[in-house]
Design a protein that fits this description.
Elements (H helix, E strand, L loop, with lengths): L1 E5 L2 E4 L4 E8 L7 E7 L6 E7 L4 E3 L7 E6 L4 E6 L8 E9 L2 E4 L3 E6 L1
Parallel strand pairs: 2-11
Antiparallel strand pairs: 1-3, 3-8, 4-5, 4-9, 5-6, 7-8, 9-10, 9-11
Length: 114
């Protein structure tokens, strides 16, 4: 399984960005895809996840601002990030979990300037 993330960049506070992650390889119908982030000097944090039924989970820090959704036919998960804050600056990693395996994509950097 390979995960290819895209969509990071440099934006100003209040702007929006959309991250995408395409999964390829041996993808099972039942899985959870999501996004984690690592901010400077901080530990890895779950941002949002969504299972194959479309049920999302969000961290408290992004609720109401970020939306995760997926296209199962395309094995793609998206993270729509609105009202971005400097505190959202981090490297964002796509994640897929199925059965007992977990997979990670290469990170994509999101920088939010004040």
């Amino acid at each position: 399984v390979q995960l290819q993330a895209s969509g990071g960049g440099v934006v100003q506070a209040g702007d929006s960005l959309r991250l995408s992650c395409l999964a390829s390889g041996n993808i099972f119908g039942i899985n959870v895809m999501g996004w984690y982030r690592v901010a400077p000097g901080k530990q890895r944090e779950l941002v949002a996840a969504i299972d194959s039924r479309g049920v999302p989970t969000y961290s408290d820090s992004v609720k109401g601002r970020f939306t995760i959704f997926r296209d199962n036919a395309q094995n793609t998960v998206y993270l729509q990030m609105n009202s971005l804050k400097p505190a959202d600056t981090a490297v964002y990693y796509c994640h897929l979990a199925q059965q007992i395996e977990t997979y990670w994509g290469r990170g994509t950097l999101v920088t939010v300037s004040s």
